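agent> fetching stored inputs for the zinc ion docking request
agent> found them:
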Amino acid sequence: MTITGQAQQGGGGDGTGTPDVFNERASDARINLEYLLRIAARTAHPTRRTTTPAEHAAVAVARVQEIARSPGAHTTAQDLRDALHEADKVRDRAEEKFSYGPCSCGVELITPKSRDQARCRECGEVWDVHQLRAFRHVAALDAAHDHRGKLAEVVKVLNLAGHTLKLNTVCKWVERGKLRPDDDGLFTGRSVAELSRT
Ligand SMILES: [Zn+2]
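agent> prediction call returned; pasting C-alpha cells
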C-alpha cells in the first residue's frame, strides 16, 4: 500500500504499489485513509480539485497551516494518525514474506506468505509453494537422518525436522539396549528415527 508512504512523504510516492492480495482490512484502511486525506485537502484548499491520494496529501501538506486553523484541526489530525497507524499495521501483514530457498537458477525464492505460487525474480520460473514446502520438509528430514552426534543433539536435530521425540524416552531405549551408540559413542538420526516408528 503505497498510499501510506505517499502520505508520509507528502505526496512524493511513486504510486506504483498496489496491495498484493485482497485483504478486507487493508481495503478498509485504504478507503478510510483516502477519505481522510481528501477531507484534509479540502480543508487546506477548498477550491483546489484533487483526485488522487498523492494529490490530496500534497495539498494538505503544502497548506497544513490552513488545517491547523480549521475548527476540526484536532480531530482531523487524530483521525489521520489513527488511519496511518492502521494502514501501517495491515501493510506490514500483507507484505510478510517467506523464503523458500533457491530456485533452479540459484536465486532465492521470496514471496508473500499468503501466495500459493512463488515467481523467481531472476528467471521468471513459477513454483508451487506447497510443493516447495514438501520438498524442504523431505530435505530437512533427510539431513536430520544423516546427522551423527551425541544423543541429545541428534534428538534435537530430529525434532527440528518434524519429529516429536522426548529425550527421556530415547535415553531409556539406550538403557534397555534397544539403541546402541557406534564405536565413537555417537548416534545417527536414522537409527533413532527408525526406533521411534516401532
Ligand atoms: Zn530462477
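agent> quick read of the result: The chain has three domains: 2-94, 102-128, 147-196.
agent> awaiting further instructions
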